[in-house]
Amino acid sequence: MTLLAASVIIFAFIHIVPGDPIYVLLGDTATPDQIDALRHQLGLDQPIILQYLTWTGHVLEGNLGRSIFFQAPVLSVIADGAETSALLATMTMIWVTLIGVPIGMIAAVRHGTWLDQGLSGAAMLMASIPTFWVGLYLILIFAAWLGWFPSSGYPSIFEGGLVNLRYLVLPSLALAAPNAALILRLTRASMLDVAREDYVRTARAKGHPALAGRGSAHPAQRAPGGGLGIRLHLRGAAVRSGGDRNGVCPAGYRPPRRTVDPPPGLSGDPGRHSGHRRRVSPDQPDRRSELSPARSAGRTPMSRDGATLWLKPFIARPIALVGLGLLLGTVLAATFAPWLAPYDPYAIDPSIRLTPPNALHWFGTDQFGRDTLSRVIHSARMALLIGSGVVVFALATGVPVGVLSALFPRLGHLLMRMIDVLMAFPSLLLALGLIVVLGPSVANAILAIGLGYMTTTTRIVYGLTLRLRVETYVEASRSMGAGTAWLIGKHILPNLISPLLVQASFVFAFAQLGAASLDFLGLGAPPEIPSWGNMLAESRTFITRAPWLLFFPGMMIVATAFSLNLVGDALRDRLDPRFRQVFSEKG
After folding, report:
1. DSSP H or E run through 220
2. CB contact at 8 A, 543 and 144
3. pTM here?
4. b vs e for 124-150, b when ≥16 Cβ sit within 10 Å of the residue's Cβ?
């Protein structure tokens, strides 16, 4: 069903895209008789439904037609590029595995340390770098300056041997950077999740040699929910804990000496004396002091320290404070751009074109003599506009579709199949198709990028609503006669706010990369409007003569996406119940 719907969309795109293949083949000098004859030969004068059925039949037969551009059968064109694509994908996966898996394991082993924070921040940084920007700088450094690798082309390995793989080193590295960041984070999260499993705790408590190497014992903090905390260490790949409440500790582990009183016991317990025990009231929890009336009558910790709890994820992770600072700086630059920019971003002065950074022009000037710093500052407005628009579009469409699909199964089956069809297309390819059909503009860029993130938002909301609708309080409200609208407003939407805030921050971050990619291809904001992607597209011609024109706009894209990713991680730590309990207990 999904393939059938995808084929309909592809066929529709082919017919909606502006232009007529007949005029492309015959040119402007063709006579009407020639046009009609070729249109009849290609079957373009038939009804659209019959054209689709004919096209589908040819596809099933393996006949994909003839390429107008290459003047060759489409299958042969695909076969010619199969070798390059397969080798490029293989090399990319090798780089991703060599970079992401070992570093992710090290980050998990050193969980909670500065090394873990640094490696996690590096992963965020790699995920925030536009692929085309990395590719340009790899070409500049390793091809133009050092001459180690070729900048373009690819002769087949069947002609020149494996030495021709050096043509794929730079493009595979550019593609591997964001994917290695994803694998790094998945590896780290998977190791930490497995280390918290009951069978790992049991093996650790029994002193399993694979989990209790000598010489690396450290007491660990207790994990949320009263379970045993874990701390992984590089030496011996040891996993240590402070023992459970029955006193079971790993082999070779010596707990630190305690200066507090022993836990309370009953009078007459062997080996204990009543004078060494605390006074315990019948309702008092084990090893806790009695609550005073003044403490109970005061404000709750959440009401007293609400702002502090929101800041604790940032305080606990200093790199998140860096992200918050970068984000605030970008917002301030966009807000006060007319006052912060030293020059008019549109002013042209050919006498100072391609001037390197200096005291008068901190970021240098471009090929028209325009001040780069002023254009970078004003481009922040376009970045925030597109990012905000994409977030609003993704939430405004994804939340209703996801909620209604979960609450109404019959409608949900149809809607989710449509979402599956949209998710079958790569987000950039889908955005390019929409831009080609609708035309390049800021509004169309927001629509094209937002449609890709609407699908992921819908999936997240759909899964969460399926879980919420079977909760006890929702079932109780429904049994008491509550309507669907009341349930959505009272129970569903309030419980979706936390994950949606985190999703919005990540959508905002990756919308920056999508917008920059469309601008770089000339399909985003109009060229006359300052944007970081447009600046990169204009300056790639001067990559060797004026490399600063690539550096400053690219760094602003990276800094904005990086800051949003860090803030999103901190919000997740604050709003996820597992992490929220940790921060509450630490306070």
Report:
1. none
2. yes
3. 0.75
4. bbbbbbbbbbbbbbbbbebbeeeeebb
432: nearest Cα among 517, 341, 369, 349: 517
Residue 232: pLDDT band (50, 70, 90) is very low
Q: What angle in degrees, to the nearest 10, is found between the helix axes of 114-127 and 74-109?
A: 160
Amino acid identity, position 481: G
* Sequence-distant contacts of 92-99: CB under 8 A, at least 24 apart: 92/172, 92/175, 92/176, 92/179, 94/172, 95/172, 95/173, 95/176, 95/180, 96/176, 96/179, 96/180, 96/183, 97/183, 99/176, 99/180, 99/183, 99/184
Angle between helices 74-109 and 169-195 (to 10 degrees): 40
pLDDT in tens, 440-490: 889 999 999 999 899 999 999 999 999 988 888 888 888 888 888 998 988
Domain boundaries, the chain: 2-63, 75-195, 198-240, 322-343+373-555
Q: Which long-range contacts (CB under 8 A, 24 or more apart) does 233-242 make?
A: 233/109, 233/110, 234/106, 234/109, 234/110, 237/109, 237/210, 237/213, 238/211, 238/212, 238/213, 239/195, 239/200, 239/204, 239/211, 239/212, 240/204, 240/212, 240/216, 241/201, 241/204, 241/205
pLDDT tens per residue across span 336-383: 999 999 999 999 999 999 999 999 999 999 999 999 999 999 999 999
**Residue 541 DSSP SS3:** helix
pLDDT tens for each residue of 525-534: 888 888 999 9
Residue 365 burial (C-beta neighbours within 10 Å; 0-12, 13-18, 19+): buried
Contact 45, 39 (CB under 8 A): yes
pLDDT tens by residue, 116-138: 888 888 888 888 999 999 999 99
* CATH of the structural domain 322-343+373-555, one choice from 1.10.3210.10, 1.10.3720.10, 3.40.50.150, 3.40.470.10: 1.10.3720.10
